[in-house]
Give the backbone structure.
Amino acid sequence: MNKDQFLLAVEGLTVSFDGFKAVDDLSFYLDPKEIRVIIGPNGAGKTTVLDLICGKTRATSGSIRFRGKELTKMKEHQIVHAGVGRKFQNPSVFEDLTVFENLEVSYPEGHTVMGSLAFKRDTAVMEAVEEVAGTIFLKDLLDQPAGLLSHGQKQWLEIGMLLIQKPDLLMLDEPVAGMSVAERRQTAELLRVITRDHTVLVIEHDMQFVGDIADRVTVMHQGKVLSEGSIEHVKNDPKVIEVYLGH
Amino acid sequence: MFADYSTTELMSIFAMQGFAGLSLFSVFVLMAMGLAIIFGQMGVINMAHGEFMILGAYTTYLTANLFENYLPGLFAGYFFVAMLLAFLFSAALGAFVEWAMVRHLYRRPLDTLLATWGLSLIMQQAYRSIFGAREVGVELPQWMMGAFQVTDLVQIPINGLFVMIIALSIALAVYLLMFRSGWGRKVRAVVQNRPMAEAVGINTAGVDRATFALGCGIAGVAGSAFTMIGSTGPSSGQAYIVDTFLVVVFGGAQSLIGTIVSAFTISQSQSTMEFFLSGSMAKVLTLLTVVIILMLRPEGLMALKVRR
Amino acid sequence: MKNSSPVKWLVSREGLYYLALAVLLVLVLPALLDSFRLNMVGKYLTYAFVAVGLVMCWGKAGILSLGQGVFFGLGGYCMAMFLKLEASTPEATAQQSTPGIPDFMDWNQVTELPWFWEPFHSFSFTLLAVIAVPMILAFIIGVAMFKRRVGGVYFAIITQAIASILTILIIGQQGYTGGVNGITDLQTLLGWNIRTDEAKTTLYFVCVAMLFLCLFVARYVQNSKFGRILVAMRDQENRVRFSGYDVASFKVFIFCLAAAFAGIGGALFTLQVGFMSPSFVGIVPSIEMVVFCALGGRYSLLGGVYGALLVNAAKSGFSESFPELWPYAMGALFIGVVLAFPNGLAGLYQRYVMPLEDRLFKRGKSGDAGNDDAALSGSLGAEKSS
């Protein structure tokens, strides 16, 4: 079986900080259009895995192949251009810029120094921004500075900033953390829309939410894969029950 | 450049320059210890650090004069009184500056840098108004004069040796205080996680003030020691501030050992080169090397690798 | 976003502020001041180039350089070397032991023009070097530091160290640089005597014109997507990086731009003052340049210009009457501007004067005022102090 038919193939991935192995010989594979959720207790290395894929942290050893391209040697912005988008755990939007400008900055054109100096706000940009703003429920707040948005709205805006990049793989770190029940429901709906035409890798704690969206679930523990499969499968895996659900 | 000298001469040159370098080393260590606490632990850039040091130097100068005029019998020991006073004055002023200025700027490190620069201008001008623009020197007690004759060519001045001993004692004291005492643990707790430190009942504002005051107090002692090997002028402190920052950054901001190693390396290379090149070129080459190394290795000589 | 013509822009609020500055510099000051004072204003204006660069670099992008004097000095020295060579013809230096080289070289037993002086016989090379030399150094520093993600206080300290190194080097290498006195006795530019009153007045207007050119370049950068990325970077550098930008090259570019502005300022300084010396290069002048920008308002291009004018005018005023009080005033300025009004004069203006203007002209609610204000916040500094 050819490995490059996977959208993302992580193999033997290891990173150690001063001898402590945060991620230890980890392997997993994502099919195109798959929704994968990573769960695991605190300190299992979930966020580190996303950091490694998007280039924020450098792997000690192992490989990350995305559509046949090796990511471990690429710079962060090159990984983004290869088609990987990453949302952080704490909403990180540009508070001094308006919602429109936040999305415009993320629009995948004018990304070089000269390109950004020559960038024109043409109709294609306007349309793309409006379309994404509609998807993330912020159509009426385009001129609002992002600093004035609620916590949930900032999370959506950051997801919107990824969507406008048109990535093949979206990585979301706890997208519903800190959200109200209503916002949570809306976010689930938003994710369902997104997952129609993206591959999504999500870290989440909320098991209800995980059950709602996941195709497959990977359970991590101490930097390794503990179990992998459908939500039913991992829920009934005795190893998982022992380290995670059992507590 | 070595060709004109015989081997023994070269050895002596290295030894003598090495010792001259050691007195620069002492100054660096003395200044850097206070900076390493304030910058390394609190992340605050105190551009007025040199002026706190000079405050200690002027305190020593005044104490020396006081003893000379009123307690000539105890002159041999004035230095220890002066050092204590220097510490107290500088620490008190440091606590005041922290309260009035620095505490408002903890989340704006670049602004702290500018504000403390303003403070240094004011302090310098105050010294100029009070003590005059000319440099002043202190009378050394008898026992500090003279030198050990090691070989015919090499001799070591006692005052230089004394200052180096003070520098190393202070370094040791700082190490014990920061890494072996309960108070040091509190400081490090506040540095690493302020909200959590507050939650476990540490008075973080108090710790900040005490840390800043301690750093300034050490600068005062440094200034006191400085008078033993050089004269003091209103802008003597500014002359060393950038070099000392380089020493601290080069050593790795949070590592005291790193600071000492880097102070040693920088002072030695500078003073050895000084013998063969002009003083200014030696300094240019030394600083340039440090800057280039820092560009290649920004975390300094000794730093922890942590997940960021 | 707005297809407004230049004329329409001039009568917009932002345009009127630029117009007011132009009127002040082109009409009011030349009418009020004698040529000696006007020359001094011209000298202050050369610092405004540095301040405008710092607004872009420090205010917009959050990169504090404490070494702008280096770039100012390099630009100034490039121009001074050209003028010095022009002044050192073999005829004019016939009594030297080596005629045809600058006098200070002769005094320092240098018998041959050093290689790096040679190209400065050419005026076009000199004009290029005034911009290129500072930019190349900034590029090297920028690439080395920003590619390794060094920023904040570390960057500030390193740039300060570089200012210190360059000063020691210039002073130490007397024979090649003129040492602590600098390069002096600069009389003519391409045969034109620059020490006459008329020449100084002409140079003043050249300086004003160049300043506006730089302001417009800065304004273009600030209003482009590049400008929004700078602001975004200052807030959330990682988000910008993971939105697909090579953050370091944006920082390198803005640092080089600031260096180029400073270099132009330095060259104009040399022309108007007639000499260049290391006292404009080192740590102290470099950090003072930051306070020009801080006083004017670190987010405001025009604020930077006014800051440079005001601080320098105050400095001259104090030095004439109470020289010993100036360091206190300067120190208090540093502390006050940081503690009490971090957005500087532009921030105060926006808070207290602009509402008055609104009431006076009964605008602000209707029409395109919203758009105007958005553009203004860039020019005047309506950014929250974070």
Notes: Chain C has one domain: 6-381. Residues 69 and 281 of chain C are 4 Å apart (CA to CA).
